[in-house]
Amino acid sequence: MSRWRRAASSIFCDLGALEGAARAFSFICLGAVSIGIGLVYQKLVFRPSSGATSRDADG
Q: Which spans are transmembrane here (predicted)?
């Protein structure tokens, strides 16, 4: 549970100390990193099985 506490602390406390453009930029970067992690996770979890064929290869 400690890692979740650290993550929440960095988002709510540490970023709360920033002002103006630095705060906006940090939230944009945090969002981009979150999207990137989601895409990598999606590629790792939802891999097609080795026997599956692609629709592009059929046509």
A: 21-41
